[in-house]
Design a protein that fits this description.
The protein is an alpha+beta fold. The chain has helices at about 30-65, 115-120, 130-135, 150-160, 185-195, 200-215; strands at about 5-10, 25-30, 70-80, 85-90, 140, 170.
Length: about 220
């Protein structure tokens, strides 16, 4: 079994966001925990990529037929230690749509394409994030990454130590409400996950995610 989570004081570096200069004693994964997560990410993502490749090609064709614009939508997100990275998604919105959090997009239904609506409801738009995981920018289970312009949410996460963890495709907050939750509640759930992380918990969240996707809970 894995040992308890280690607590450390991460050193400042140029990749950190200068939102909360003060650093507190915050939770972080042990070395063995990081190894277990990384090996699991690779073991699951490589065969998943091969398995879903025909489906991803079909989705790409549908997107190109449905509306003008690129197949893959890239967006700046906040990663581990505040470092920005490009998250990959299948494009579900029309070109020129502003970068807004998902809960704010509910007032802009006309910006979502017909194919995009289906992809969002089934969460298939998230499939390209497999490549973010393979690039070690994300992990399968972890706190969902905030948009680059969600500064208030990022400040809360930095104070709570959430930014010490790689962001995930799915997470504890996602299986307990997704975008229905206010930011403060999301951060509290993210912090709980970071503090109580175990290898078994990750698998529990993976199975809960499958159920959440099937029931389309919190989907938009």
């Amino acid at each position: 079994m894995l040992g308890p989570l280690k607590v450390s004081n991460p050193k400042e570096n140029s990749n950190h966001l200068a939102l909360c200069p003060e650093r507190q004693t915050l939770p972080s994964l042990s070395s063995s925990g990081r190894i277990y997560k990384r090996l699991t990410d690779i073991a699951l993502c490589l065969p998943t990529t091969l398995l879903f490749l025909p489906l991803m090609l079909l989705i790409a064709i549908c997107i190109k037929i449905d509306s003008p614009g690129p197949v893959i939508f890239k967006q700046k997100r906040v990663g581990r230690q505040g470092k920005l990275f490009d998250i990959y998604k299948f494009r579900t919105m029309r070109q020129g749509t502003p970068n807004l959090a998902t809960n704010l997009m509910q007032n802009m239904q006309s910006a979502i394409t017909p194919v995009g609506g289906f992809l969002r409801k089934t969460s298939l738009d998230e499939l390209p994030q497999i490549f973010n995981v393979l690039k070690d920018e994300m992990t399968i289970v972890g706190p969902r990454p905030a948009l680059y312009n969600q500064t208030e949410l990022t400040e809360l996460r930095q104070k709570a130590g959430v930014l010490n963890f790689l962001p995930g495709i799915t997470g504890w907050a996602q299986v307990n409400g997704r975008d229905e939750l206010p930011d403060q509640t999301k951060v509290e759930m993210d912090k709980w996950y970071c503090t109580h992380w175990t290898y078994t918990l990750d698998w529990q969240i993976i199975f809960m995610t499958v159920k959440t996707v099937i029931t389309r809970r919190g989907a938009f």
